[in-house]
Amino acid sequence: MKEKVNDRTDQHGGSLENRCRFALEIVEAIVNKIGADRVGTRLSPFADYMESGDSNPRALGLYMAESLNKYDIAYCHIVEPRMETIGVEVECPESLVPLRKAFKCTFLVAGGYDRGDGNNTLLEDRADLVVYGRLFLANLDLPNQFDLDAPLNKYKRETFYISNHLVGYTDYPFLETTKDH
């Protein structure tokens, strides 16, 4: 969908509409096969990994959010533009609020949220749900830790996506507490 990597010249390249066409065709095919209530999508219009960005990520995100409404899918999960990439905090003046307003079903956000940010996002109706990826990897009892406002384990990026099943995803300590849930 992003112009920096989509150099096609057919009906799936060039204009914003054409670059998004393939993704929307996939959504339509899946919806037709299993039903819209079982389909969701994740978009990261602001990410620019390995030079795969877009010159107008806000327009890309808005177009996709509006276009996905046609299919009445269960949710749209958007990655926040402020997310941390490879250990560097990326500040972006863009906001997901226009995408939230454009998409008519359940709207999820992710990207560097902590407890306070997540709570404020929900209180200010900027999302229906907040997704905690890396924090959950390092804190398998994250809801309990949030509930107690306990200190969190720091995730270890160097252990992401490695094949050693004894290091990384399974070796973070749990919070020691006597509180029952």
TrEMBL record:
| Domain named NADH:flavin oxidoreductase/NADH oxidase N-terminal: residues | 3-147
Q: Which domain of life is it from?
A: Eukaryota
Question: Which Gene Ontology terms cover its molecular function?
Answer: FMN binding; oxidoreductase activity
Under the heading InterPro entries, the entry gives: Aldolase_TIM, OxRdtase_FMN_N, Oye-like
UniProt keywords, alphabetically: Flavoprotein, FMN, NADP
What cofactor does this protein call for? FMN
A Pfam family recorded for this sequence: Oxidored_FMN
* Residues that span the membrane, as ranges: none
Of which family is this protein a member? Belongs to the NADH:flavin oxidoreductase/NADH oxidase family.
Protein name as it appears in the record: NADH:flavin oxidoreductase/NADH oxidase N-terminal domain-containing protein
Please tell me the species this chain comes from.
Answer: Solanum lycopersicum
